[in-house]
Design brief:
With about 160 residues, this protein is an alpha+beta fold. Helix content is about 45%, strand content about 10%. α1 packs across α4.
């Protein structure tokens, strides 16, 4: 019973982190709002709603957010939010491996600020997207110098 309560508490914390992230995202990247969606597959539900979702094709392991904008050679960016002690489930690990293999960028983030920085890297074509990608905080106002003018003009439209 204690383990189940702890899981509910962790899900509630992750929900709050996602709410904070969305608020911050809307402030920092207002032109990208139409491309971002939350994938609400991980929330706690009663059995009848769970069965209905399963019957409609919902599966486990999907990351929390999808930024549906090709960038840096990737189809889209998926973000999985975890608390400081949160761990990926086996389904999440397998799903991330499949997504990376199909050309999607996938990143586990721990908090809104980290997620904003990862999106900043992604939209500036600096995201590596490898499973061993190491997140390093950057300042959002840093500029890249090795991109061609067409790419810079395209990115300016979305930022």
């Amino acid at each position: 019973m204690k383990q189940k309560r702890l899981r509910y508490m962790q899900n509630d914390v992750e929900t709050q982190i996602c709410k904070i992230f969305y608020r911050d995202f809307c402030k920092v990247f207002p032109k990208l709002i139409p491309y971002l969606t939350h994938l609400p597959f991980g929330e706690q539900r009663n059995a009848s709603v769970g069965k209905k979702l399963k019957d409609m094709g919902a599966t486990r392991g999907w990351p929390d957010y999808l930024l549906a904008r090709p960038c840096a050679g990737f189809h889209s960016l998926f973000l999985e939010f975890k608390t400081k002690r949160g761990r990926l489930s086996e389904q999440q690990k397998m799903r991330m491996e499949v997504l990376r293999g199909q050309g999607f960028a996938v990143c586990v983030v721990r908090g809104s600020a980290q997620a904003i920085d990862v999106i900043d890297l992604y939209t500036k074509h600096m995201f590596l997207g490898r499973p061993d990608f190491e997140y390093k905080p950057i300042k959002c106002h840093e500029k890249t110098t090795n991109r061609d003018s067409d790419t810079q003009r395209d990115d300016a439209e979305y930022q």
